[in-house]
Specification:
Order of helices and strands: HEEHHEHEH
Number of domains: 1
Strand order of the largest sheet: 1-2-3-4
Mean pLDDT: 87
Strand content: 5-15%
Structural class: alpha/beta
Helix content: 40-55%
Number of helices: 5
């Protein structure tokens, strides 16, 4: 994987970010190779029962971790909680998240506007926290 990553980073014409989509826990050596690793690609039910710490090195690799959750059917309040937990700097502070209420990726989910709004809210809170920390 190291050779493949090096090749991709030197030949990509637009950016050089490499994301591995393991969808599960990976050996620690992979964190030094990839920019980001998708540690969970599964249903909302699987996320609810997953040991996220086991997937991202007990938080050591939060800043490089992403998740994809599909068949997500909980309402706006739970979506707000989950986005805040996964992306918020006060909690997991993962690098990326995609949530869809569909089981397919060929169209935008019906909850897309709500999801984007929640991500924007968390990003704003993260920026405010960073500004407050820098001011100290």
């Amino acid at each position: 994987m190291s050779d493949a990553t090096s090749f991709a980073k030197t030949t990509l014409t637009r950016g050089s970010t490499v994301l591995f989509n393991a969808g599960q826990a990976v050996d620690a050596t992979f964190w030094g190779i990839a920019d980001y690793i998708n540690v969970l690609e599964d249903t909302e039910a699987a996320y609810d029962s997953a040991d996220i710490g086991a997937l991202d090195g007990e938080g050591e690799y939060h800043a490089q971790s992403t998740m994809i959750l599909y068949d997500y059917t909980d309402g706006p309040a739970v979506l707000e909680r989950d986005v805040g937990t996964i992306l918020g700097v006060q909690r997991d502070a993962m690098a990326g998240l995609y949530v869809t209420d569909l089981g397919v990726f060929d169209r935008f989910p019906t909850n897309f506007t709500g999801f984007v709004g929640e991500v924007a809210r968390v990003v704003e809170a993260n920026m405010a926290a960073a500004s407050a920390a820098a001011a100290k």
